[in-house]
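Summary for the steering committee. The consortium agreed at its last meeting that each partner would contribute one worked example illustrating the joint modelling workflow. Our contribution is presented below. We chose a case with several input lines so that the handling of multiple components could be demonstrated. No manual editing was applied between input and output; the record is shown as generated.
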Amino acid sequence: MGKKTREDFPSKDGGKPSQEVPHVPIFIMGKRYEVPASLTIQKAFEYAGYQLIRGCGCRGGICGACGTVYRFPGSHKIEVGLACQTVVQPNMYLTMIPFFPANRATYDLEKLKPDLEALVKLYPDVMRCVQCNTCTKSCPMDIEVMDYMAAAMRGDLAKVAQLSFDCVMCGLCAARCPAEIAQYHIAILARRLYGKYIAPKSEHTEGMVKQIDEGKYQSMLEELMKTDEDQLKKLYNEREPEPEGAEEDWIPKDTRYL
Amino acid sequence: MAGYPPELKRLIRKVEETRAARVERKKRGEELPMLSLREREERLKFHPDYKEDSRREIRVGPSKGYAISPEIVDLLEARSRVDPDNIDLSEIGYETDVLVIGGGGAGTATALLSQEQGAKVIIATKLRHGDANTMMAEGGIQGATKGSKDSPYYHYLDVVGGGHFKNPPELVYTLVTEAPRVIAWLESMGMMFTKSEAGTLMTLHGGGTSRKRMHYAADITGAEIMRTLRDEARNRIDDIRVLEFSAAVELILNEHGHCAGAVFYNMETEEYFNVKAKAVVLATGGSGRLHIQGFMTTNHYGATGDGLILGYRAGVRLRFLHTVQYHPTGAVFPEQAEGLLITEKFRGAGANVLNIDGEQFVNEREPRDVEAASLIRECMVVGKGIPTPTGKVGVWLDSPMIDMLRGEGTVRREFPGKHILFRRYEIDIAKEPMLVYPTLHYQNGGLEFTPECETTVPGLFVAGEVTGGVHGENRLMGNSLLDVCVFGRIAGKNAAVYAKERAKEGKLSLEHVRKYNKEVEEAGIGSERVAPMLLPDYSNPEVRERQLTAHYVGTIR
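What follows is the complete predicted structure of the assembly.
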């Protein structure tokens, strides 16, 4: 690691703050730091001098490691965001909540039925939801958590799956729920039940696995594995590309290798 | 943040002016011609791999003399984090049948299959279970599942063509013949693939595919795979124990030279501890956070190539590490999103890549290395890139075309992750294009291994991005999620069988580490560096200067 200057920082992780960017005060767990106004909360932590071990994962808004709550002086509202996605604002009082305890049921998906009974048996808490909407307001992914909880109470697993699909399992909903429910665990159970039992099965995949197991492609693949580079290049160049706009029922002219 | 500034808005008008005609051409099936193999070779001269000083020979170890990225060589030529003499191997913190190092897609698939063979498993990972590049993969997973138009034969050809015909054939064979089984496996665990009402899995093209075989779950395919695998591992809690915030720093061998565990560092309490195992699987992923050639990266915080170092010190050779994959399209605007992956699926769905004049300069579906080289050439040589307010340069990715080609609402529905993300920056990617530039994405090569996931060290198995060979010199989109599942499953099964039938008890040893350190010393490499790195260095240099009593070992305080 060579010596770095302020100009370098934090260029490796996505561009230096432009020189003109003014600094703003933020309050990390109540303590004041001045940071460039263009930084995300995550980079602001690092700028302030933290080395992140908790509260940092993909740095791209999908892993759910950096759920963050903040509020502004004089405001009644608790706001939420992912630290890696939220740009700092002057005078925000913030803390990351990198972990929140929540109970998870264990189950054998093969033995479950995709219905309300399965959900309630594993997560009796479902029925404690009072539909207060705090969860939805706490979701950094803008998921309609309360609505999927309502669907869960009706046993409408398809709706739960659809509404909760973007969930990053950061746990902020569970952290704020007055009924002490772990919504995100219920959601993934619903999604898996939906994916396994309710969504129509892809017959074509099963068919292909069977054909491979029966050895249908064995000799042509063995042939390919022995082919020299020049011949491989020729075969590669002669591939018949499926047109971009082709419909599902498109069939190539050459069907010898299907 | 308020969307694009006026100067970029003005340039977007040029994109809009050419858009209708481009959409019409695409509807008629008129594509910008693909480059011939010869033209590709010419174009690749603009790829970062071809830059002078992009490679340096390794001076120690089993692949001594092999020239690869200097950033990786620096780590391979570094000392171990901890003096082997300070480690008491008689003190065993945990004991298990199969030890899996890495909690991403490959590691978790490994754990599931090992458990199914009756093994007790420990997954140890330096951050949280699931914090991995698998989680971040967006576009999809390849597999020839549609027998009416596709087969493993074509998948094979596409893979080796993408890999410059250098891939070991038996690895490609395994990848393409196991692919449909992996898709079926994921489906059986309740993964929510995007499907038609009849159950047909939706598939798209990716760069370098001859058939549409990219299966997906909206634009968060990797996250959906990862959370499904992780959820299943959590269901098997009696047999699969997860040690989080535990970073492997060395492999442990035994007196027979077999792998028999690893030394770990507790990232929070700073203790070292040993795990003894009958078989070990390295599934530590890639190395984007080494920021090779100073490139921004799409990779996870923990992608620092640790497994390469551990495996190499234990005697496993490296291959295909001389090429590095730059994803053609990483975001360069807004500043907060810089480096973020903009999935290839946008191009698979029809979005053109355009220069400052709103003109196409390359077909958007060339293999990744060719596409990336073309973007770099357009910006740096032709000079038709678009400058950003922070002094970067990029080209347009014309996402609004997708709604025009596939119907209003497609972008929102098929790319919810990116749609939400850009909406936060007040950019509607269904109406405005994105600014992109190549970004460090994938470690094409790694540790040498067989299709059975074995290495030259008995008892040491490997799977996923830490390995080298499957993708030759360049990986195609959708083959890494496939790779982690295919080879994770094989490693899991074989490690468990090895633990049961072949593992031989013996005195534990770190002699290989001592030997390696000595070799580094004798080569006259007076480096203060330590490896593995564990986490990248994003510390603020000004703060660091004032940390008068802080103690850093490598990048870690």
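Chain A touches chain B through 99 residues (CB under 8 Å). Residues 24 and 126 of chain A are 42 Å apart (CA to CA).
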